[in-house]
Design brief:
This protein is an alpha/beta fold. It contains 14 helices and 17 strands.
Length: 434
């Protein structure tokens, strides 16, 4: 069978990892496909000044992505630069040229994926997006085909390896957030600007994508309620342990009769829950289906070669379809037409809550807070206080019975104005059923 020629645009971590697999594992890839995947063009701002893997001597090396898209041999374009400006231009140009596209770009696909897929479908070419979420876990393929017959009711995920690494280190070593973040940056787990990771925005894009596959909806990521891990301290893990829980940045999606609830936020989860065992820079997704019940998927969420495996696997799938004439066999979003949707207001969702306070200790504090909770019809479950450390900055916790997030928000807003508060209270849900 005739070989398939590929163009790679972007030689960052993912592009380099993909090239490594395409060259070092070329013989086995050909055995699996029955033909070769040949890299005919490579584009990077530094491509001409860096050593490329052996086997690419005949490839076009350029700093202009347009030369890759226009290359007469290239049938599949891999966009691996990230971002939403030049990347979108590349993807649209490749589609217009009648070439299939493989991308690892979570931000672009979360924002514009459905529109780009419609362009690709109209042109009769494929758009493959497996590497955009959980690089080392084939979660797209699972949702798109593996459990396609099921009707998903909920899924929960740990979708950002940087945040999970930081939380794991705080828990294990009783370290402060800033110190762990600095170490994560030194090790390459966190970017110089860690905002997208630690404030939840990276996880939000991934949640929007997975919800599209799981429920057939087209979402705007900014509509998803999102909060990050900056406020989490070692004392929160000590209190969580007293409750038999740990803390993770949880991406949650729940289909209810009232609508779809989505959120990215730190949450307490039971220590015997399967997601609690996910530590370090790993990702995981737990799903619950109406027919297939619970399934769980775990692996490296990022890194040059884990994500490169997802990219090259997509290249293989698209190449097979090109040679078999099966282009467009399955939508990249699993549904023939994702429908625009908005999540339900997260304040409507009922949860038990963990409320952590830092106060200047004095008589009457519990009475004042209890009065505010009662005013908002919130019932106290327990009050926890570790041995006193500093009366000027005393941390303690109140857990409350299941109530709406809206009531919690209103109560905390009122509490924040109390003169004994050192900082605004921290609220985290206790996620049930995990």
């Amino acid at each position: 069978m005739r070989d398939v020629h590929v163009g790679i645009i972007g030689l960052g971590n993912v592009g380099t990892g993909s090239l490594t697999i395409l060259t070092e594992n070329a013989a086995q890839l050909a055995q699996k496909l029955g033909f070769r995947l040949i890299v005919s063009a490579v584009c990077s701002r530094t491509a001409k000044s860096r050593a490329l893997p052996a086997g690419l001597e005949a490839a076009l090396v350029t700093e202009d992505w347009r030369e890759v898209v226009a290359h007469p041999d290239v049938e599949i374009v891999a966009e691996l630069i990230g971002g939403t400006t030049a990347a979108r231009e590349i993807v649209e140009a490749a589609i217009a040229a009648g070439k299939a596209v493989v991308t690892a770009n979570k931000e672009l696909i979360a924002l514009e994926g459905a529109a780009l897929w419609r362009q690709a479908a109209a042109r009769g070419v494929q758009l493959a997006i497996e590497a955009s979420v959980c690089g080392g876990i084939p979660i797209h393929g699972v949702l798109r085909e593996g459990i396609a017959a099921d009707r998903l009711e909920a899924f929960y995920g740990i979708l950002n390896g940087t945040s999970n690494y930081i939380l794991s280190e705080i828990e294990q070593y009783n370290s402060e957030f800033d110190a762990v973040l600095a170490e994560a940056q030194r090790l390459g787990y966190a970017e110089a600007d860690p905002t997208a990771d630690v404030d939840g925005f990276d996880a939000r894009s991934k949640l929007a994508l997975l919800a599209s596959l799981a429920f057939g909806v087209e979402l705007t990521p900014s509509d998803i309620p999102t909060s990050g891990i900056r406020p989490i301290t070692p004392v929160d893990f000590r209190y969580a342990a007293q409750l038999g829980c740990t803390i993770r940045l949880v991406c949650s999606a729940e289909a209810t009769p009232a609508g779809l609830f989505l959120a990215v936020r730190p949450a307490l989860i039971p220590k015997d829950a399967i997601l609690a065992s996910v530590r370090g820079a790993y990702n995981a997704v737990w799903t619950r289906g109406a027919y297939g019940a619970d399934t769980f998927y775990y692996g490296k969420g990022a890194g040059p070669t884990p994500t490169g495996v997802a990219v090259v696997s997509d290249l293989m799938r698209v190449a097979r379809d090109l040679r078999s004439g099966a282009s467009g066999r399955v939508s990249p979003f699993g549904f023939t037409g994702p429908k625009p949707a908005k999540p339900r207001p997260i304040g409507e969702q009922q949860r038990a809550w963990y409320l952590r306070f830092r106060v200047q200790d004095r008589p009457g504090i519990i009475a004042s807070l209890s009065a505010i909770l009662a005013q908002h019809e919130i019932s106290i479950d327990a009050v926890l206080q570790l041995p006193k450390e500093d009366w000027r900055n005393l941390p303690f916790v109140i857990t409350v019975e299941s109530t709406s997030g809206m009531r919690i928000s209103r109560a905390l807003e009122q509490m924040s104005g109390l003169d004994f508060m050192v900082e605004p209270p921290l609220a985290m849900p206790l996620e049930p059923g995990l």
